[in-house]
Amino acid sequence: MNVKNIDAHMLRDLLDEARISTKKDDDGDLMTILAADDDFPHDVIIWYMLDGNWLTIIARSFEYKMDDPVTVANDYNRGHRGVACIGEPDNGTIYFKLGFLLDEEVSTTYILENCIKFGTSCSWRSFCDIYQGK
Question: Which domains, ranges and CATH numbers included, belong to the chain?
Fold first, then answer.
């Protein structure tokens, strides 16, 4: 099926199809928690947000602290593409952000594979890469 706009109901259906269990946060955005494992020992919260034609994915781990998050983010962004790393010096954390502009007709398969699955796995992998020093 091809669509030009994505709404919250379609986003939730696509997340369900991807087997990503979500709930709504206080702002009404969909979110999921990726559990810590051997690759990254802290939980990661991922938000899926819609704003007009934009699908934005933000991933953060509130437990993962560092002394200089801005330098870590800058170093990461120099060598990696696809996801932006943002350092927050006030609380010693970083977060990752990806945005997908969906202003042209695309298939739901495109949204599922190239936005949702790619964005989720890229966000998790980015935390793993920084934690493992890659």
Answer: 2-131 (3.30.1460.70)
